[in-house]
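# nightly structure sweep
# worker-07 picked up a monomer target from the shared queue
# config: single-sequence mode, recycle default, output format = structure tokens
# input follows
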Amino acid sequence: MSLLTPTVKTVVGEPEVVEDDRANQKVVEDDRANQKLVEDGRPVEQQPAWIALKDAATALQLLQAQDGSVPDPADHAEAGALAGVIAAAIGTLAPLFPHDAAYLAASVVDIERWVAGGFAVPDFLDSLVAFHPQEHRVDGLQHLVVFPMYTQNGSRNRFVEALLCEVIWPEFVAELEETYTNRLFVSLRLIDFTPGYDTNSAVLFPETVAMREIPTFTWGAIFQDREAARFRRVVAAASEVTKLDVPEGTARMLADQRLTEEVFVTWDLIHDRSHMRGDLPFDPFMIKQRMPFFLYSLEELRCDLTAFRECVALGAGEGEIADHARLVQQAVIFDRIFRFAITGSRVRNYDGLGGQLLFAWLHQHGVLHWTDTQLAFDWDGVPAIVIALSDAIDRLYWESIDRPKVAHWLAAYDLVRAVVTPHPASQWARGLPQDVLAGAPKGYTDAVLDDEFPLSMFFEALEKKLRDVIASTSGITGRDA
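# output follows
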């Protein structure tokens, strides 16, 4: 995944373009001390105004069409009443979020304008551009977020969604970010939410918001508590099924949600900035284009393996950064081979293929063993083998700078098929016919099967045993772990 972009007009995905506003941090820290509790002593998620806001937004969703509008005039009176509850609740709760005062005020105005306009397709551009969570990366600081938006890996409906969340930003991450600079990156923990986030969605991205035009994006957020909780539940179950003796570091993560959240912050901070760094064949992933899904598999895996490589170097040191870097290496391997490989449908599942590719590469290079129905690793040899896969993908990218696009696609397919076996019916595996090779790129993409690289027998069996566990992680938060 990648955070979206720039303060200048450029391709989506470019990091390191927003300067920190560190002068505000002392004020924000003072705000934080008084934020979680109000006069009656209850945390914000138990406040009547939040409960009313959440209930009203959930009820409003039942009246909205997929584009976010309320198309039936007969529903407008009810929608207006619900919108009024949401606006009033925002006003009541706003003093708890002084760092977001401009955004929350703009949000109320956007709601009122939507009501006055007869509930057409909503436009929350003004409040979106007033929201700047990247300027307040202070551990524990909370945000109230209300937008009509779809939720990635959740719902394609642009319904009004409401979130309570808090920043995860321990001191060692602030120190790490001085080297791995990514001013757009915001790490969050879910507190409470409307149904759009009672799903697999683990990101808050500005491009999902309903708006009249596309602004310059300056932030993107990932809910590391959800990622950590999913990891812990799935890896615990997978290690039991495969009789894996997990290393000491993974055992620590399985026992400690907060530690695992910090590990995922470390991983994602480096992963995200990697999308626009390296010898890239122009912009391999983030530009809006249709291409074979295995290209996305390689790009996401490339960024994960870049994070792995960097954490091998960081892990050679001492202190919190080094400790978390060593844990990132184990998290990348186990999240990729256990959760990614068998999560979601088999329709162009690029993260799933990335997990299959990493597993097969480790197995074929002799550092992963499935013997006597037990999984084992030669951990001393794992880093070099993972870095070798990273090198192979980097080499593909470096060479493809001098290739036509479809030739890059063919070379990428050759890299994947050398490790993971394609479907027997694959046109790509047999060799694309001349009319496709001589035609437009669309023909190449159309020839890719939905499940071009089916699960191996190992993963077929594992998926059956873990299916219910993976399904149970939908909507999970750190509080559930």
